[in-house]
Each structure stands twice: as structure tokens, then as C-alpha cells.
Amino acid sequence: MYSSHVVKLNDEAATLSLGEQLAAILHPGLTVFLHGELGAGKTTLVRGILKGLKHHGKVRSPTYNLVEIYKLPALYLYHFDFYRFNDPLEWEEAGFREYFNQDSICLIEWPEKAGEFLHAADLHIWISYSQIGRIATFKAETEAGEQCLSHWQERASD
Ligand SMILES: Nc1ncnc2c1ncn2[C@@H]1O[C@H](COP(=O)(O)OP(=O)(O)OP(=O)(O)O)[C@@H](O)[C@H]1O
Ligand SMILES: [Mg+2]
Question: Quick one: DSSP state of residue 26?
């Protein structure tokens, strides 16, 4: 059983800052599922991660295009949003399968909409509404995901 971890996010700045911290521990080859209701803050978290990875341009929600691609100095980051995914053929035709490789980080909003097509996640992050802001819950699903979480906890306790 892999560990889970909870973080309070009182405002948007906290979500962005969590993303920046995550940028330091994510590495190519990882797949992260981002769960949470509409407007929970999944794209905001990705914005923070990209900021931490020194991406200076815009970060658009991939709601309509299904994926936004970021070519960074050391890796590719693919930000998916499958909310509107409804055609399994699209998966093969768009070449999504090839995006999941050792040179890329894949961050996925609404993974359940892509069902069986998706590569399993190393890490799950749930963002839920709370009385003050949001709460993020992390859970690792693979050894690689578990290692990420323990690196993150080591850094947090420094
Ligand atoms: N910790 C927080 N507390 C309060 N508001 C927040 C927090 N984090 C993000 N927000 C706000 O919540 C909204 C989240 O929007 P965002 O597009 O990130 O959600 P999403 O989960 O990606 O939604 P969708 O499923 O529609 O793509 C933004 O307006 C953002 O400013
Ligand atoms: Mg979003």
C-alpha cells in the first residue's frame, strides 16, 4: 500500500506554489492524474508546475484541444484535459499513445473520460473544495510515484 498525503491550499497562490514545489520532484517518464470537480484548480496547479519548470509563456486550458504541448529544455510536458473526449479513434489518430514515454511528463485532467486508453498513473492528485480554498490529496500508485512523494516530503522537512 503506497502512502497518501494531504495539503491545504487556502488560495490560488497556494495552488500555484504547490505546483512550483512539485516541479522540483517530477521527472520525465511520470504520468500524473489530476482529479477534481470543474473549477477545482487542476489547470492552476499545472500553471504552477510549468512556472517551476521555467516555462515563461502562456498556459492555456486544453479543454478544447485535448492536449497542450510544452517543449522545455530537458523534457516534454503534455497537459491533457479529456473532459470533452468522446471518440476513441481520436486517441490513436492524434498519436496520444506516443506521448507517454521516458522523455515526457504527462499531466491529465479528467482521466476517467479516456477510460481504458490511458496509461496507468504513477501519481494521483485530488483537488477538492473546502471551506477555505481547496485541499489537495496525493496518492502514489507506482514505485516511481512513491519515490517522488518521499523526495517531496524530504524537501518539505528540510
Ligand atoms: N486554493 C484555491 N483556493 C481558492 N481558489 C482557487 C484555489 N486554487 C485555484 N483557485 C481558483 O479556482 C479556479 C480554478 O480554475 P481551474 O481552471 O484551475 O480549474 P480546473 O480544475 O482546471 O477546472 P476544469 O475541470 O474546468 O478544467 C480559478 O479561478 C482559480 O483562481
Ligand atoms: Mg482545467
Answer: -
Counted residue by residue, the chain has a size of 158
pLDDT in tens, the chain (158 residues): 566 789 999 999 999 999 999 999 999 999 999 999 999 999 999 999 999 999 999 999 998 889 999 999 999 999 999 999 888 788 888 889 999 999 999 999 999 999 888 889 999 999 999 999 999 999 999 999 999 999 888 877 76
Q: How many angstroms separate the CA atoms of 100 and 19, rounded?
A: 21
User: 3.40.50.300, 3.10.120.10, 3.40.630.30, 1.10.287.180: which CATH number matches 4-84+91-157?
Assistant: 3.40.50.300
> Which ligand 1 atom sits closest to the C-alpha of 132?
3
Who lines ligand 1 at CB under 6 A?
A: 9, 11-12, 14-15, 36, 38-44, 61, 63, 81, 109, 133-134
The model scores a pTM over 0.85:
yes
Q: Which atom of ligand 1 is nearest to the CA of 46?
A: 18
Domain residue spans of the chain:
4-84+91-157
Compute, in angstroms, the gap from residue 121 CA to the centroid of ligand 1.
Answer: 22
